[in-house]
Amino acid sequence: MFDLSTRSVLVTGGSKGIGRGIATVFARAGANVAVSARSSDETSSVAAELDQLGSGNVIGVRLDVSDPGSCADAVRIVVDAFGGLDVLCANAGIFPEARLDSMTPEQLSEVLDINVKGTVYSVQACLDPLTASGRGRVVLTSSITGPVTGYPGWSHYGASKAAQLGFMRTAAIELAPRRVTVNAILPGNILTEGLVDMGEEYIAGMARSIPLGTLGSPIDIGHLAAFLASDEAAYITGQAIVVDGGQVLPESPEAVNP
Ligand code: NAP
Question: Taking every annotated instance into account, which residue ranges of this chain make up the domain Ketoreductase (predicted)?
């Protein structure tokens, strides 16, 4: 539907889950894609698989978003490989459980360092090439958790995902003169490796609370990222878009299965 074949895309946290789904959609569309994460082995093997999907090149790049130097190094590698960068999908994030009564300063810092500072550092590292692109795009992966909903054990995570939206609104204004748009996707419960770790009971309970009856797939998020990266979405900026199968709509569990 959209022509993304001339785009170069960096996906942080692209080795697994939602990031891998986003990278898959761009690779299928013929974009050049850099799959990045902390594990070099995983980024290399995922890149080799995705490279088979489309006409563009897919490479793996090691990147720790909580380290500004690592972000700068990775972006340099991507720009050297592709000759520029048009799209940053700032997707890397973690969601370890910690209740307020036992959360340590270290647990809080880790979530904020990766989810909040990591978002800011990765966008900062991409500013020059995104500006040079003339059609630069930043697509953040936030969440319904924090901006819209709450869930016991994830107060620090919810704060981090809401913080991404606060960042986005001012970044969208600051970057508009550079023709760089900044938008956020708010996934509901998406069946990823990270979520599988939460256990079958959690997943079954979540599915029952979703009007469309199932968890989403990483590809569902990739499709919105692809749209936001397209020429057709050039006039959309500073927006937070929920992709959740209707999960945030019911007033009570009875509203889903009346
Ligand atoms: P996942 O399956 O656990 O994958 C996380 C990815 O991020 C991996 O590639 C991981 O690779 C990478 N990563 C983690 N820390 C990193 C760091 N410091 N620097 C660079 N890469 C890092 O998680 P997911 O479920 O796909 O979640 C991805 C994003 O979607 C997160 O921002 C999350 O908050 C958001 N989200 C997920 C859901 C859901 O239902 N799954 C719902 C709403 C929002 P390495 O460990 O090798 O670095």
Answer: 7-188
